[in-house]
Write a structure and sequence with these properties.
Layout: H1 2-18, E1 21-29, E2 32-39, E3 42-47, H2 75-95, E4 101-112, H3 116-140, E5 142-143, E6 146-153, E7 160-170, H4 171-194, H5 199-206
Parallel strand pairs: 4-5, 4-6
Antiparallel strand pairs: 1-2, 1-7, 2-3, 4-7
Helix pairs in contact: 2-3, 2-4
């Protein structure tokens, strides 16, 4: 009887914990990504991790040089990966429809190239992609505040993007979504790392 009571209390506590809403805030500025976990007033940096403080060396040993901060690949290299992940994002949205709340989504993209024709074409493709993707977001999430701005730059050589986003959901939903996403995203990231083409691209080339 006591064992069943303890198990019942444990299950109840886990159920209550799974209902706690937590948030994630992501920022992408100048090819640098930062992700913070929000739990009430508490903010925990998930990425990038802080560098460990070097230990005090005995004697007069030279201190190791601090490691340079790693930057994400240029925006042009991230677009093919984003195209593969967008369908999964839409499917994930269907699984968590009206459960995730987007408190903020502020996206600013500047399409740039030394070739004016290429810049105009990429600008049109970008706006078309946003026009297809954003309605899916509004249909499947509770959006409180959002701003999306796109522009062209015929002088700069590389495109730039700036993103500020924050969303909240329950711990239970995070666990379920994380397990589902890991099973689908990890093979794509592994394939991308190896430099292999996706099955869809291989099929298109065969046709």
């Amino acid at each position: 009887m006591i064992v069943l009571l303890i198990l019942g209390i444990v299950v109840l506590v886990l159920a209550l914990i799974s209902l706690i809403r937590v948030g994630v805030r992501a920022e992408y500025v100048q090819n640098r990504l930062s992700v913070r976990l929000l739990a009430g007033p508490v903010k925990i940096t998930l990425y990038p991790r802080k560098a460990k403080k070097p230990r005090k060396a005995k004697g007069h040993k030279a201190q190791p040089a601090p490691k340079e901060e790693k930057k994400l690949p240029p925006l042009e290299e991230l677009i093919p990966l984003a195209k593969q992940l967008l369908p999964m994002a839409a499917e994930a949205a269907g699984r968590l429809k009206n459960k995730i709340r987007i408190d903020l989504f502020d996206l600013d993209i500047t399409v740039a190239s030394t070739d004016p024709v290429r810049t105009a074409l990429n600008y049109g493709k970008l706006n078309m992609a946003i026009g297809m993707f954003w309605p899916l977001v509004e249909q499947n999430f509770k959006v409180k505040e959002w701003h999306i701005r796109t522009r062209m730059d015929f002088i700069a050589q590389h495109a730039t993007a700036e993103l500020h986003a924050a969303a909240t959901l329950t711990i239970g939903q995070i666990i379920v979504l994380g397990a589902w996403a890991a099973a689908r995203v990890l093979p794509i990231l592994s394939q991308q790392k190896k430099g292999k083409k996706s099955p869809q691209e291989t099929q298109k080339e065969a046709v």
